[in-house]
Amino acid sequence: MTLTILIWLPLAAGLIGALFVPARLARVVAVVGSLATLGVAISFVARFHSGHSGLQFVTDRVWISSLGIHYKLGLDGLNVLLILIATIVFAAGILYAAGQEWDRPRVFYLLFALAESAVLGAFCAQDLALFVVFFDLMLIPFYFISGIWGGEDRIRATTKLVIYTLVGSFLMLVAAIATGVIASSDHHTPITFVLSQLQGLPLSHSSQIWIFACFAVAFLVKMPLVPFHGWLPDGYKAMPIPAVAVFSGILSKVAAYGFLRIVLPLFPYATVHFQTLMLIIALVSVLWGTVIAMTTPDARLVVAYSSVAQLGFIMLGIFTLTPQGAQGALIQMANHALVTVPLFFIVAAAAMRSGGSEKLADMGGIAFRAPVLATLALIVTFANLAMPGSSNFVGEFNILLGLFNSKLPIAIIAASLGVVGAATYALRLYIRAMHNRVGPKVTSFEIKRWEAVAIVPMVLLILVFAFYPQFALRRSQSSIKTTIAAAHARPLSTLPGGPVQAAQVP
After folding, report:
1. Residues 287-329: tens digit of each pLDDT
2. Which of 31, 43, 78, 290 could serve as a FRET partner for 283 with CA atoms 20 to 30 Å apart?
3. Do residues 31 and 98 make contact, with C-beta atoms less than 8 angstroms apart?
4. Residue among 39, 17, 15 at smallest CA distance from 28
5. What pLDDT does residue 501 have?
6. Are 372 and 285 in contact (CB under 8 A)?
7. What pTM was computed for the model?
8. Cα separation of 352 and 20, whole Å?
9. Which residues of the chain have pLDDT under 70?
């Protein structure tokens, strides 16, 4: 079984549902396709050999020979966990969506399937040009989902999302082309975009600086982090709940993964050069997201801005440039996905019981008549605030450990304000939504079956990762060490037009 099957199976199921079955059965085909993809991902994880930093399950075919572009796929410790989490998140999103009625369901589920194939392709891609293609492709379905099935202000929100992401995509395309062209020109080799080959063709300092900046802006817009998050409030409000849960849960992680897979190994000098700036951007995002999440009256935006803060923590871990911090960041990518997806579903469940309003002031008082829903929400809340014993605690602990070893002042601020703030906004959301006085339009009732099908498995996975974090730690350790070692490689010679040799920093 090859990774090609894993990547294109969701789209194949989506096409079957769109073209060959009645509209009423489209949801069934979508659910079966997502669960089958999850099963394939589990088989790859089960066969993955921990402790090896090299690629496994490699597929390598020349795609466009004149441009040196390969259809190269592979798994290692950087992406094997994220592949599994991506299939879990999409399965949960489609299961949740299947419990509701949608206008033009065949198109709706086809777009979801295309998004899953593109995300899996971006995680598996081992060619820079192929990564860019999948990265841009995964955004297209969400433009249409937001524009067709979004909220009242969907047109303006979708327009803003398109403008922001198009700018980021253009910068990434320019940077990717420049990387391949300049590397081949400097080293007098045929042009290539294969990541392993580009790593052996280091660029000059000046080239790394501006190419790093282009990639960084593209990834920061996509995550998003401050000050590139202007599209987030409108975009997250406009998307239907299954779409925004998947978007926040996994699409933002593709951008964070891009820093580990592309930026650190290919642009080591620029990575070190911009380390402090990136840490400051990450810290500001943690503080800004925390403050807004603590004060916004909208339950959905509490989850959205808490995601900004959590992604800021992930960026802090990556740019500590230490194995502990980077491994904590990778684990936190998985943890955040497992937490934020059920959080969006719980917000939707609370809104359904509050006359359709997502305002915190209109919620409350449902816990005693919906104890199962309230218990699930409490477990997710404790994980979100990184309670000791939760899966998030392991990730944040590693991030802060790397940060204390790298940048002590930033570590102190993040540990004090960021962690305490997370507890505040997480408990505020839970108490306002589940307890306090009964809202004016609240009708309390227990969790529905279709809600439980999507939420309960995610909560169980949170508990599994909390008690068994070694599952992620063991599979990622070797690859993380290799990536961080590559990030500390600096060129010895940067003469214009001359060869560039790499040396390892002890």
Report:
1. 999 999 999 999 999 999 999 999 999 999 999 999 999 999 9
2. 78
3. yes
4. 17
5. 41
6. no
7. 0.92
8. 34
9. 439, 489-506
* Alpha helices (H) in 223-298, listed in sequence order: 232-238, 241-246, 252-258, 264-266, 268-273, 275-295
| Token pair in block for residue 217 | 């802006």
Residue 198, amino acid: L
Residues contacting residue 225 through CB under 8 Å, at least 6 positions apart: 281, 282, 285, 308, 311, 312, 315
Query: Is residue 224 reached through a cis peptide bond, with omega within 30 degrees of 0 on the bond before it?
Result: yes
**pLDDT at 366 (0 to 100):** 83
Find out whether 263 and 204 touch, Cβ atoms under 8 Å: no
**Structure token digits, residue 74:** 């592979």
The pLDDT, as a whole number, for residue 81 is 92
- Is residue 366 within 8 Å of residue 442, measured between CB atoms? yes
d(CA 209, CA 270): 5
Query: How far is it, in rounded angstroms, from Cα 302 to Cα 291?
Result: 10
DSSP-assigned beta bridge partners for residue 302? none
- Quickly tell me which residue has 């990556």 as its tokens: 318
Q: Give the pLDDT of residue 490.
A: 56
Q: What is the pLDDT, as a whole number, of residue 494? A: 42
Burial of residue 488, with CB atoms counted within 10 A of its CB: 0-12 exposed, 13-18 middle, 19 or more buried: middle
Q: Say if residues 146 and 158 touch (Cβ distance below 8 Å).
A: yes
Secondary structure tally for the chain: helices H, strands E: 23, 4
Q: How many residues does the chain have?
A: 506
Residue 426 burial class via C-beta count within 10 angstroms: exposed 0-12, middle 13-18, buried 19 and up: buried
The DSSP 8-state label assigned to residue 298 in this structure reads: B
- In order, the DSSP letters of 16-46 are HHHHTS-GGGHHHHHHHHHHHHHHHHHHHHH
Do 314 and 256 touch, CB atoms closer than 8 A? yes
Q: What is the pLDDT of residue 169?
A: 86
Q: What is the pLDDT of residue 99?
A: 87
